[in-house]
Every structure is written in C-alpha cells, then in structure tokens.
Design brief:
heterodimer, A: 298 residues, 19% strand, B: Four Helix Bundle (Hemerythrin (Met), subunit A), 3 domains, 18 helices
C-alpha cells in the first residue's frame, strides 16, 4: 500500500512537471500612462561605471523612456517591409547587416555581411503576427516590450529610425545616474520595484506559464486594481531599466574575438541579483527569447 | 567543571569529536544560509531569516559575501578531511596535535568571523580575523605535508598487499602527500589574486567572466584555484575512503601510482592556466584527470568486488541477484563508491559533454544559461563529497542494524534524487524552451528541495542525538574519546 501511495505521488509530480503551458493564456490589460514614444536626455559627464565603479564619461545623448514595444516594432516592420529594408525569408523576417570583424579566436563566431534573422515568425512566443501583407500585434501585448527579437532585429530597428543601440556605457549611465546605485531606483530591491522571477506581479503564474512580460512603465507608483507598484524610474526618469526583459546593447567585439552581444538589466526570468545595473548577460547576436528586448539611443 | 572538561576534551581532542563539531558547524551554516537563496528566497523565507538573525545584507555586495560563505564551508570540509587523514595515517603525535589545533582554530575563525563580517555589517577586525583563520589553515596544511613525508623510514612498509617501492616507501602515503602538497600550493593561486583584487575591492565571480576571451593572469588564477581546490578535496576523500575500506591488492598497486601521476599532472595543468601555457593547459588537465579518475574506478571495482565476495562467502555459486544483494547490503560501505560513480552523471559527464559541445550548443545559449550549468555542476560535486563524508561518518558512529540501513539509504536516495534533479535542471535547455519550462522547473525544484531538505533533516536528527548523548555520563561519546580511525579500518 505504501509503495502504491509513494508511486502515485511520484507519478503525479512527474505529470504535473510535464503539463502543457498555454503561451496565450489571458493577461490583464493595464494602461501605465507612460508614453513609449518619449525620449529622455542624458546629460554629458562622468559617472561610476560597473560593479567596481570605474569612472567613465559620456557626451549628451537621448534614450527611449521605455523598451521598444511590440506595437512600435510592428509599425517598424510594416514600414521597413514596404521600403525593402527587411524581407520575408520563409518563417523569418531578415535584414542586412554589414558583418563583424573576424579574428579567428577560439569560440569566436564569424558574422559575415549579409541577411540575418531579425525576428522568427514561427516561434511560439512571438507576439508579432504576419498575414502575408501586414504585421500586427497579438491582442493584449501592444504595450509590452518587443521580445523574440535577435540582436540584428534590434540593431535594424534603431538604425531605421536614425538611432542606435546604446553602448554599455550609455545604457548604464541612463540606468544608474551618477551616484553609483545598484538599482535604477536606489539601493535596495522589493517585489513592487520590477518584474523579476517570482516577483508576484499580476502577469505571472509560477504554477503554469511562469513569469511573463509586463507593460512597459508598469512600475511607476500606480496601483492597478489591487496591485501596488513603487515608482521605479531611473534618476533620469527611464522605466524598466531593471527587470521585465534583458536589453540588447550595441557594443560589437568589446574584446577582440568576443562575438557575443551583451544584454543588461535582468529580466522577468532572473532573480533580483541580476537586476543590478552592472550585471551582464551575453549571447550570440542570432539569439532570441521571450525575455530579451531592447531600446534605442540617439 | 569536570562535566564540561570531559566533553570539551572529547569534542576538541578526539578525531570523532572534532569531526562531529565540524559537521555540526557545516550543517548549521548550510541550513541557515541555504534559506537565503533559490526557492526559499522566492517563498519569502529569506526576509524572515534576515530579520530573525539581524543580518545586514547589501545587494551590491553579493559576490564578496558568497565568496566568504563558500570559503567558510570549504574550510570546515578541508578540516574534516584533515582530521580523517591524521586519524588514519601514522604520524608523529606532535604533528598530529599541531595540525589539528591549527586547522580547528583556523576553520572556526574563518567561518565565524567570515560570516560575521559578510552578513552582519562590515567590522574590519572580523575580516582580519577571517584572513587569520585562512592563514592558520594554510600553516596547518604545510605542517601536514611535513607530517606525511613518505620518505621517513618509520613509515616504510613491506606488506605485499599494498603498493610500495622496492625500498619500502608507501605509495599510498605518497599519494596523500602529493595531494596535500599540491593543495597547499594551489591555495596560493587563490590567496595571491585574492589579496590583489581584495585590495581594490574588485571582487568577482569566476562564472561571470568565463566567456570573455581575454582574461588577466589574476582572473585565470582565481578560475584555476576554485577548480583545483574542489578537485583536490575530491581526490583526498577518494584516498580517505580507500584507506578506510583498506584498499589493497593488485588494483591498489595500479591505482596509487596513477593517483599520484594524475594529481601532479592535473595541478600542473591548472597552474598552467595562469601562465603562457594557457592555450594547452586544458589538454594537460584532461591528461591529468584521466589517471585520477581511472584510479577511483579501480577503487570502485575492488570495493564492489570485496562487498560481493564477503557477502556471498557462504554461498557456493551465488547468482546475479545474490551478488547484487550482497553489494548493496551495507549502504555505508557501498555508498561512497556509488556516489563516486554517480558523480560521473552529475559532474564529470556534464563537464566533458559541455567541453565537447561547447561551441555547437552551450555558447549559442546566453551566458546566464552557461552560468547555471557551471554553478550547478560544482554545487553537485560539493554535495556528493559532503554525502561521502556523511556516509563514512555513519560508520564512525557505529550505526548498526536498521538504523544503519535507514541512515545510509536515506542519504544515498535523498541526495541522488536532488542531484539528479539538479543535473536535469542544468541541462534543461537541451530539451525544453524557456517559454514552456515552468512546470518542469517546479517539479525539479520540488525534487531538489525534497531531497536536500530531508537530507538536512536526517543530519539534524543525528546532531540532536549526538547532542543529547553528550549529556549522558556514559554516552557513546565516552567510547569515541579514545577510538582512532586507523583502528577501524576494514579488515
């Protein structure tokens, strides 16, 4: 009898582990009141960069107040397809990239000039839909960050609008300002500051689909139904510089032979420690994920 | 007063008492500090623990904090192994006493003051005492090398069952000596860059710089240090288990020179990482790891063969199931080598697979995924070493009958469930995408927490039993005061 009970428990646990995940489960619709089309000016000057607070400086630049949203990216694709800036290649949207320098160093991937995947259309997590003519956004995700986009797709978007992906230094200064804080809003992190793994926001369900993206600018001090957020803007007023999605940055070969691209900011899928402003993630520029997005600088 | 004096004498002057104290210290630290991360943090337990103990944790200082935590636990494990070595091998009483005093004071200072500094505000006096503790352990290591000197004629052997040179030098002792010496040297590979980076407060975790193609000598040194120290702790526990089980015969004669060769070559490879030899260092490491792992395999073959032979001695022609039954009859003797075999699935196998398919698979994934594999596989190796120590400790306790079976099998089954779950968790991206992984992750986390949580509970029960035993005038501790491990080596 004991064996039957134990076997049943183990079997039940196994079956629960194998449960299918509904990637299109309903999600709350919140208007955060933050306009993703706004840009923020970051003044020139020095700041403490990285975990060890090395002094770096930047010129003045502008950066998007939030991550690029799916709606913005769909608009881009419609315009870019019409212009011939991107094209459809099977299940992918591709665009031209002029290539990276190649040094043949161990583990280095050769990125040649040519067409590279911007976004895959057949990825189950892709929120951009294409009917053969127009790009649209899956209902409910319009004000969520654009995800399942490669570094090339992020680079192409910014380039199309005469901007560029932020360098690591630009990104971090915009995130932390000049007082060496570890988080955009200050020195400590609470669940109401950002969307991270198991942060108990209304968009996550850790029993089924896990953590999902939240609308850009959600953590602005507003209360959504009964969900209270803290105003978690960076010193310059940027939102989502920690959590929600990793953000591609633009540095190409920061070290000779390093073909990965860096990502910053942590995401819905990482613990709070990865939301510290100096934490790096990196992946090949062909990588895409429901936890990676971007914003632009000009 | 006599009450305290006798107990103190047992706890800090006998091999089993010293091991008991160190296991208790590690158990307490693992139980409390394990609640600060992972699922415990998700469930909000972390905040409760922080408030309950009045911890002062600053997010920005996580890296430095956990490096001190790792060292606090590792030094206690090194101390346990040292107690075992000094209890199993012949050496002068002065050296035995001096090594034990130094390492006991050392690991306690490291653990207590290290954790006080890291988790309870930054009192720099505590940091100094933490460093002093590490230094004392280093000196204990140097002294242990002197004590183990195999070319001292007092330690020559002529028993044909054991590996020895023509002159009579004990080759097994040479293996212990080689491991001790290389451990002391390898400690410097952490100490020097530790001072270098610590001076500028530039602490970092190796897994966070692993992908950068160009690393400084000091960064390579740290990466080499953490790999080789864990490997050496693993090699030392293999030698200890071999001695406890009384490894001998032809396989012993083959294994011991291989162990020495493997240890030296492995160390040369790892040290080479911090030199211009770096491009070929990995090849040297593979060359060194092979004979070491083969030697461990020979120990496994010999010990399993002995368990089967002894367990079926009363049968004329034992069949397969009778042999299997004999093999697993005593989980405490079967367990350590089983864990060494299991390690190949959770650590070595994963490591080799990653090395072979690094560019095709693992470097396509984000660095954070690779970090999970790296940290997961060395956590698994550490946990396996801990369980081997606990299995040996179960035998030291003199557990018999059903309690022995229960203790042994609970440790084996619970740890292997947890470690199997860790291994699947590390490798999950091979067969599931992040978008649909949550139910699997939940199941694996449940298995890990179930295994490790109950394992800690078993340990807690044993520790409570030992604590209550100390209050008895003629408790088990009175028998352990004078028992030495060398007296309990298997016949």
């Amino acid at each position: 009898m004991k064996r039957i009970i134990l076997t049943s428990i183990l079997l039940a646990a196994f079956l629960v582990s194998c449960a299918l995940v509904d990637l299109n489960a309903p999600l709350p619709a919140y208007d955060t009141g933050i306009n993703p089309n706004l840009w923020v000016t970051i003044p020139a000057g020095e700041f403490a960069y990285g975990q060890h607070e090395d002094i770096e400086s930047t010129d003045v630049y502008e950066i998007m107040i939030t991550d690029v949203t799916t709606a913005q990216y769909a608009d881009f694709l419609n315009a870019a397809l019409a212009d011939g800036y991107v094209k459809v290649d099977g299940d992918n949207i591709v665009g031209y990239y002029p290539g990276d320098p190649f040094h043949g160093i161990k583990h280095e991937i050769e990125i040649k000039a040519g067409d590279w995947v911007y976004i895959p259309l057949n990825d189950p997590s892709q929120r951009i839909k294409f009917d053969g003519t127009n790009f649209t956004v899956q209902v409910g995700y319009e004000n969520h960050p654009m995800t399942s986009v490669t570094w090339f797709g992020a680079w192409g978007y910014c380039g199309y609008y005469d901007s560029h992906l932020p360098t690591e230094i630009e990104w971090e200064k915009a995130a932390r300002g000049t007082d060496a804080r570890p988080f955009p809003w200050g020195w400590e992190i609470m669940r109401e500051n950002a969307n991270f793994y198991s942060s108990r926001d209304p968009f996550e369900n850790m029993k089924t689909f896990g953590s999902r993206t939240t609308p850009v600018g959600l953590y602005n001090g507003q209360t959504y139904n009964s969900y209270i957020t803290l105003d978690s803007a960076s010193p310059y007023g940027l939102y989502d510089m920690a959590g929600n999605v990793w953000q591609w940055v633009g540095d190409v070969q920061p070290q000779e032979g390093f073909s990965d691209r860096y990502m910053r900011g942590g995401s819905k899928d990482t613990y709070d420690m990865d939301l510290r402003v100096w934490v790096h993630n990196s992946a090949a520029p062909t990588y895409f994920s429901p936890g990676v997005g971007f914003r632009c600088v000009r | 007063m006599q009450f305290i004096k006798t107990r103190f004498f047992y706890l800090f002057n006998s091999t089993k008492g010293l091991i008991l104290v160190a296991i208790a210290m590690v158990g307490i630290v693992a139980a409390i500090w394990g609640m600060l991360s992972g699922p415990m943090a998700e469930m909000g337990v972390r905040e409760v623990v922080i408030k309950l103990f009045g911890m002062d944790i600053v997010q920005a200082e996580r890296e430095g904090r956990i490096i001190i935590l790792y060292h606090s636990i590792a030094m206690a494990i090194v101390a346990i192994e040292t107690y075992m070595v000094t209890g199993l091998l012949k050496m002068k009483e002065f050296f035995k006493m001096a090594v034990r005093v130094l390492i006991t004071v050392g690991y306690m200072m490291t653990m207590i003051f290290g954790l006080l500094f890291a988790y309870f505000g930054h009192n720099w006096a505590f940091h100094g005492l933490y460093i002093t503790g590490l230094s004392l352990i280093f000196f204990a290591g140097v002294l242990l090398c002197v004590a183990l000197w195999p070319w001292n004629k007092e330690y020559y052997i002529n028993d044909k069952d054991y590996a020895h040179t023509k002159k009579g030098v004990d080759v097994e002792r040479m293996a212990f000596f080689a491991t001790a010496v290389t451990t002391v040297i390898s400690a410097l590979f952490g100490a020097v860059p530790g001072s270098f980076f610590g001076n500028g407060f530039e602490v970092f975790l190796a897994e966070n710089v692993i992908r950068l193609p160009h690393k400084t000598v000091m960064e390579y040194s740290i990466i080499g240090h953490l790999h080789i120290m864990l490997a050496l702790i693993g090699i030392m526990i293999t030698l200890i288990i071999g001695r406890w089980l009384n490894f001998k015969g032809i396989l012993h004669k083959i294994a011991m020179p291989l162990m020495i060769l493997g240890t030296i070559v492995l160390n040369l490879g790892v040290w080479g990482v911090a030199t211009p030899l770096e491009p070929i260092a990995h090849m040297i490491i593979y060359v060194g790891a092979t004979p070491s792992m083969f030697a461990a395999l020979l120990l496994l073959i010999w010990s399993w063969g002995k368990l089967i032979k002894d367990g079926t001695a009363h049968l004329k022609k034992p069949n397969f199931f009778q042999k299997l039954s004999a093999l697993v009859r005593d989980p405490l003797k079967f367990g350590p080598t089983w864990q060494m075999l299991f390690m190949n699935f959770t650590t070595s196998g994963i490591g080799i697979f990653m090395a072979i398919r690094l560019d095709e698979i693992f470097r396509i994934w984000p660095a954070r995924e690779e970090r999970i594999e790296l940290t997961g596989h060395w956590h698994a190796l550490s946990a396996i070493i801990a369980t081997i120590i606990l299995l040996y400790y179960g035998d030291m306790l003199g557990l018999k009958g059903k309690v022995r079976q229960l203790y042994g099998w609970l440790i084996l089954i619970l740890s292997d469930i947890a470690l199997a779950a860790v291994t699947v968790f590390e490798m999950k991206r091979l067969f599931i995408t992040e978008a649909v992984q949550q139910p699997l992750v939940n199941g694996l986390m449940l298995a890990m927490d179930f295994g490790l949580g109950l394992l800690l509970t078993v340990l807690a029960v044993v520790m409570v039993w030992r604590l209550t035993d100390l209050f008895k005038p003629k408790g088990r501790w009175t028998e352990e005061v004078t028992h030495e491990l060398s007296q309990e080596v298997m016949k």
